[in-house]
Amino acid sequence: MKYRHIVLIVVLILLVDQVLKFWIKTNMAIAEQFPMISDWFYIHFIENEGMAYGLKFGGEFGKIALTLFRLVAVVIGFFYMKKLVREKYHTGLLICGALILAGAAGNLIDSMFYGLIFSASTRYEVAQFLPEGGGYGTFLHGNVVDMLYFPLFDGTLPSWVPFWGGEHFIFFRPVFNIADAAISVGVIAILLFQKRFLVKKTEETHPTVETGAIVDDRQQVM
Hints:
By secondary structure, the chain is α+β, with helices and mostly antiparallel strands. Helix content is 45%, strand content 13%.
């Protein structure tokens, strides 16, 4: 696998991620949703200021620190992927690395630029792209757009279930985006197949050519 293939994977995932986020941001209000497949897959628009799946970290300072960390990680990631390609690591590891890199870059774009190029999304107003009065935030202060919601189970748990019996329960509750999904798939695959992935490809070995010549160990080699 060549380095340009890594770059191509990253670009394709970024394109899908950003096109979907742009459409959501300019066509939906916060908390608006519509069903995609029955009642277990929805497009549900939310924004978060922190990490993947809506997790937060350290308030305003934590947001800036997280964005800068993502930026450094993405830059280092591209150089590290080039090193892995050069050292001929398993193709599976390279693909997983490209997924993780694309996911980190996708959410980084939101954090760095969305506050500058969009007006605020609210429950009553859809955001405008490049508004006249400027965006809702400053550089590094954009919110990450999430929209994929899979409530695979939404109902009341049986009374015999320990601790939560009889209570309303939703599985899977987090709302996420394409970038989050790419990171999760890449990390999980590496954990599952690490014994196969975390090895370099060995150099080609030349087959031994057998001959009918008789070898005499008693002969002195000059």
